[in-house]
Amino acid sequence: MIHSAPxxxxxxxxxRPVRPLGLAVDxxxxxxxxDQCAALGLLIGTPDAVxxxxxxxxxxxxxxxxxxxxxxxxxxxxxxxxxxxxGVGLRCFETVRSGGLAISLKxxxxxxxxxxxxxxxxxxxxxxxAPGERAxxxxxxxxxxxxxxxxxxxLEVPAHLRVNSEGFQRFxxxxxxxxxxxxxxxxxxxxxxxxxxxxFIAVMVSDQGAGFNFAEHLNxxxxxxxxSGRGLGLISRICASLLAEDGGRTLTMTFAR
Length: 257
What we know:
By secondary structure, the chain is of the alpha/beta class. The chain is 36% helix and 22% strand. It has helices at 31-40, 63-69, 90-97, 107-112, 115-125, 133-154, 165-179, 214-219, 231-238, and strands at residues 2-4, 21-25, 42-45, 54-59, 76-79, 101-106, 188-196, 200-206, 241-245, 250-256.
């Protein structure tokens, strides 16, 4: 089942009780960050001091810090920027309040760190996804979605460049330039994971790029020999359902466990 959805509202139901959510800051807490947390209704403190039903770890992104954030003591990791939580999607906080896991990284970090491995490990260790062919296929989908969010979403690198060796060299050059662009490299890649009952897991991969026409891309017949452009079709064949939101900036993939 494949759907294209209109951009969702950032307003969540007032009928559902809001669970206390804490932001554990691995470092000094600035006045601006404290004000942002107050506006979002988040408790804030050091990892040892903040007490809430659910907690997000925040700080400098590294393999260790992200894995710690999705471990037993926390329900996600948010990379802090120079402006604190500015740019972090509200979906991350709602996901954690709903019993899921959330990761919010700058594009540069999502590209440089083993983000896919971290997410796949979280699905296995925290969501009970058994290793095997199903997990491998889900990993392929997530790798495609995350790389698309980084390269074609936030960095806006054209996919068609990789059709030959000359184009691939140009592709690499543009990637290098845009990873060093302070605006583009600080756009967010966010991964939200939610259990859907006992049988399904939903994974939402979001970027802050220009978006794309989901239906057009999905229905486009791509040459089987092409070196790019086949990822969305592959994902749609593996997923139980595939949903585009936010004008194509969020891809929601639901997988059978």
